[in-house]
């Protein structure tokens, strides 16, 4: 049974709603977007995962001339893959936000998200029937730094979470340093798609720059040079 058939009829007027945003970056397979209402109407055969992107405007300059733009948190997982804080939520016992906050408490220790932080939902690829919910919360740089410190003292640090990392949102003059190299890492599940989607939807990186960064990861890599290169 398809996802739409499993949900049943949508409320009157739903057909008039504007289309849901898509990523639209060449080289990145699209995931099927659905509204929060549609996601909540999915049948019991679907699992729900909830993850969160915490970010803050960052006025800093790398090497005194490369704008950092934002500080965006991700984490290195126990399996060596990059992902966002969060996990699966058992909808029999928890709301999406309660379940997400329960998992965040284990890995971060000092942040709680609400429905107001909800960003999007997507059906995932693969044999398992999973709908991935994504949240984003803008903080101050000081608040973000406090969370980074708290994460080191959380229950999961050194076990399921190897540490927090910040995503470089710039591209250096060699066209690889920064975001392109970061995107060349291995990501878990929908994490890479969610990162790119959030950066586009929240206007944190221009869409053409995202496309250039993705395209750069598909080219043969040149040997890295450890120098204070510029930025495009």
Question: Can you tell me about this structure?
Answer:
- The chain is α+β, with helices and mostly antiparallel strands and about 230 residues long.
- It has a domain at about 35-170: Nucleoside Triphosphate Pyrophosphohydrolase, CATH 3.90.79.10.
- About 25% of the residues lie in helices and about 25% in strands.
- It contains seven helices and eight strands.
- Strands 1, 2, 3, 4, 5, 6, 7 and 8 form an eight-stranded mixed beta sheet that branches.
- A hairpin with a 4-residue loop joins strand 3 and strand 4.
- The radius of gyration is 18 Å and the shape is globular.
- The termini are far apart.
- Mean pLDDT is about 85; it is low at about 1-15.
- Belongs to the Nudix hydrolase family. TIRR subfamily.
- GO terms for molecular function: snoRNA binding.
- One of its GO terms (cellular component) is nucleus.
- It comes from Nycticryphes semicollaris.
Q: How many individual β-strands?
A: 8
Stated plainly, the CATH topology of the domain at 33-169 is called Nucleoside Triphosphate Pyrophosphohydrolase
Overall geometry comes to globular
Q: Using the CA coordinates, give the radius of gyration.
A: 18 Å
Would you state the CATH class of the domain at 33-169?
Answer: Alpha Beta
Tally of separate helices: 7
The percent of residues in helical segments reads: 25-40%
């Amino acid at each position: 049974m398809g996802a739409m058939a499993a949900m049943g009829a949508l409320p009157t007027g739903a057909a008039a709603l504007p289309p849901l945003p898509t990523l639209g970056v060449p080289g990145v397979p699209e995931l099927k977007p659905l509204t929060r209402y549609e996601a909540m109407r999915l049948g019991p055969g679907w699992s729900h995962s909830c993850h969160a992107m915490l970010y803050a405007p960052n006025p800093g300059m790398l090497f005194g001339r490369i704008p950092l733009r934002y500080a965006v948190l991700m984490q290195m997982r126990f399996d060596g893959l990059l992902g966002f804080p969060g996990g699966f939520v058992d909808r029999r016992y928890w709301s999406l936000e309660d379940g997400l906050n329960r998992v965040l408490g284990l890995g971060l220790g000092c942040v709680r998200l609400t429905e107001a932080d909800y960003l999007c939902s997507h059906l995932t690829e693969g044999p398992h029937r999973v709908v991935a919910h994504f949240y984003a919360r803008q903080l101050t740089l000081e608040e973000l730094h406090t969370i980074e410190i708290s994460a080191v003292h959380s229950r999961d640090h050194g076990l399921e979470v190897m540490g927090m990392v910040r995503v470089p949102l710039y591209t250096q003059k060699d066209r690889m340093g920064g975001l392109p190299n970061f995107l060349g890492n291995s990501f878990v599940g929908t994490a890479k798609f969610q990162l790119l989607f959030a950066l586009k939807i929240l206007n944190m990186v221009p869409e053409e720059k995202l496309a250039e960064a993705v395209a750069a990861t598909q080219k043969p890599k040149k040997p890295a040079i450890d120098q204070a290169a510029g930025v495009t």
